[in-house]
Each structure stands twice: as structure tokens, then as C-alpha cells.
Amino acid sequence: MKKLIAGNWKMNGSLESNAALVQALLSHSADWKCDVALCVPAPYLSQLQNLSKASPLMFGAQDVSMHEAGAFTGEISAGMLKDFECRYVIVGHSERRQFHLESDALVANKAQKALASGITPIVCVGETLQEREAGLTEEVVKRQLAAVIHLNGHCISEIVLAYEPVWAIGTGKTATPEQAQHVHAVLRAQLHAASAHADRVHIVYGGSMNAANASQLLAQPDIDGGLVGGASLKAADFLSIIAAAH
Ligand code: PGA
């Protein structure tokens, strides 16, 4: 399977710096051997739509509403994201679970809305440090994925799954390739039990992935790509990760 390297810009960027970053990335796009996407703040979707035209770069959003339309001030629907040709949307990022109190059920609803609009949800799961130390890693990620499987049933092979241990996000602490592979294998088995097409689901790793550790992580049998935060904001770093994905 072709690997997927997706950048998560989080709440960073400006019209000027986005243009410079995307142009720097695209100047190397002839060398890309993997799928490459950028998940950007919603106001920049139209900019990405323009910048990525006639290029292999795909883009997406970082969140979507569980509602379709109506009195939900500040929310953005899957239909609106589709209007801007979003290919992906991140759902259930740990920063949204933690700071916006998103539950497993809400995340499953958001994934359902994305799928119904033809957008691939990048569903994030991952344990906190406290949960890992208490030996609860498998239980937590399985519970988070089970909610999404429960609501999305036969469509489950259409998602991208991101394993992002919360203790590794933005901390410079990466899961070892063995730690990550172990959890990815657990998630793959859970997908297999739910779908005959589990083999085609990209399970990507996120959490301080960088130019130095990407190759080893991406060499693991069940690591099909990366969801990259900090290192996606610097062209040279992101390009090194892309180069490691072949
Ligand atoms: P990081 O973020 O690469 O900066 O750790 C990853 C993410 O939050 O998706």
C-alpha cells in the first residue's frame, strides 16, 4: 500500500507563509513516492484548493461538525468542506478530545458525517501517559475505535486511522517503533474483525514524528504513514519525512 504522510498544521499559518511553504513542498513533488496531504485551518482551505491545483498534493480540514446545517454558531459542516474539495478531515484529535471535551460517540458521529459527504476522516486514537502507565493503552484505543466501528459499520474500511499517543504529541517524545507497531497491530486486528477490507485501511502514526525517526517508524509492517504536526510546518523537515515514506 502506498504510504500516506499528512501534515497537521494545527492553528498555525498565514496567507503569506502558507504560500511559501506549499510552493517549497511542491517544488519537490516529482520525487514523492507516497500520498501527501495537508490538514489546514478552515479559513485557508480555499487557498490550498488553489495552490494544490494540478499537483499531487491533497488537503483537508482539522475538524467537522456532527450536524448537517442549522443553528450551530461557529461549526463547519461536511458539506461545506466538500464545497472546497477537501479530501480529508481529522476527527477526534486528542487536542479536541482534551480541550473541547469531545467524546468517543461525538467523534464517531463526525466520522459518519465526513464519510456521508465523501470525505475521508482521519480518526485519531491514543492513550495519555497516565493511561499507558496504568497498563490501559490497548483498552483505551480499542474503546475509541469501537465507537467509530459501531456507528460506521461496513464503511469502516474507508477511514484513515491515526494512532497518536497523547504523551508523544508535541513533546519530542516519540513512541519507539516497537511500541507503535504493537498498538497498530492491535488496531489492525480490531479492523479485521469488523471488515473484510481492513488491509486497505491506512493506519498512520502521529506524535513527534520527525526527519530523524520517520524511517524506522515507517519500516514497521502496520505503520502505513504519518500524521505530522510540528515537523509539517518546515518544508525541509516535512520533505525528509516524505522521502522516508516509500
Ligand atoms: P506533533 O503533532 O507531530 O507536533 O507531535 C502530531 C499531531 O498532533 O497530529
Give an overview in words:
The protein is of the alpha/beta class. The protein has one domain: Alpha-Beta Barrel (TIM Barrel). 40% of the residues lie in helices and 15% in strands. It is built from 10 helices and 8 strands. The chain has helices spanning 15-26, 45-51, 78-83, 94-99, 104-116, 129-133, 137-152, 177-194, 214-218, 235-244; strands at 4-8, 35-39, 58-61, 88-91, 120-125, 160-163, 203-206, 225-228. An 8-stranded parallel barrel has the order 1-2-3-4-5-6-7-8, surrounded by 5 helices. Helix 5 (104-116) packs across helix 7 (137-152) and helix 7 runs parallel beside helix 8 (177-194). It is globular and about 45 Å long. The model has no long low-confidence stretch (mean pLDDT 97). The structure holds 2-phosphoglycolic acid (PGA).
Strand order of the largest sheet: 1-2-3-4-5-6-7-8
Distance between the termini: 10 Å
Broad shape: globular
Alpha-carbon Rg, integer = 17 Å
Helicity, in percent? 25-40%
Proportion of residues in extended strands: 5-15%
CATH architecture: Alpha-Beta Barrel
Mean pLDDT: 97
CATH superfamily membership? Aldolase class I
Largest sheet, in brief, is: 8 strands, parallel, barrel
Low-confidence parts: none
The CATH class, by name, is: Alpha Beta
Helix count equals: 10
The succession of helices and strands, N to C, reads: EHEHEHEHHEHHEHEHEH
* Helical/strand content category: alpha/beta
Query: What is the number of E strands?
Result: 8
CATH fold-level label: TIM Barrel
Ligands bound, unique = 2-phosphoglycolic acid
